[in-house]
């Protein structure tokens, strides 16, 4: 495994571990998701450059567009929960209570 592959894999795994173990605030969960998406974008971009595949050259940009949409939806949910509940702590959110 090359050092570049190791760094992207470790960045993705660290983001996944942060998402799994530090679930106290919604903002920290969103940051972990964005870190995972950024490592996927860089890995996919380097993969298309390494194999010189012109048919896959739009895939990193498509992933980046979906990542931006995911980030905007997450921030909208963050603002909505902060306004209704007063905090972004995930322990205060209950789906059974409206």
Automatic annotation (TrEMBL):
Q: How does it sit in the membrane?
A: Multi-pass membrane protein
| Main localisation | mitochondrion
Main enzyme class: translocase
Q: Where in the cell is it found?
A: Mitochondrion inner membrane; Mitochondrion membrane
In the record, what terms sit under GO molecular function? NADH dehydrogenase (ubiquinone) activity; oxidoreductase activity, acting on NAD(P)H
Identify the EC number(s). Answer: 7.1.1.2
Transmembrane parts of this sequence: 6-22, 29-49, 61-80
Q: Which GO terms describe its cellular component?
A: mitochondrial inner membrane; NADH dehydrogenase complex; respiratory chain complex; transmembrane transporter complex
Q: Which domain of life is it from?
A: Eukaryota
| InterPro entries, per database record | NADH_UbQ_OxRdtase_chain4L/K, NUOK/Mnh_C1-like
Q: Does the keyword Transport apply?
A: yes
Function in brief: Core subunit of the mitochondrial membrane respiratory chain NADH dehydrogenase (Complex I) which catalyzes electron transfer from NADH through the respiratory chain, using ubiquinone as an electron acceptor. Part of the enzyme membrane arm which is embedded in the lipid bilayer and involved in proton translocation.
Name this protein carries in UniProt: NADH-ubiquinone oxidoreductase chain 4L
């Amino acid at each position: 495994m090359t050092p570049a592959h190791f760094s992207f894999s470790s960045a993705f795994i660290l983001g996944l571990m942060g998402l799994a173990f530090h679930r106290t605030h919604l903002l920290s969960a969103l940051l972990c998701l964005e870190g995972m998406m950024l490592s996927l974008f860089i890995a996919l971009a380097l993969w298309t450059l390494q194999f010189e595949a012109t048919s896959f050259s739009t895939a990193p940009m498509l992933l980046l567009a979906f990542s931006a949409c995911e980030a905007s939806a997450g921030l909208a949910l963050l603002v909505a929960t902060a306004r209704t509940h007063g905090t972004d702590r995930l322990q205060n959110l209950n789906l059974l209570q409206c």
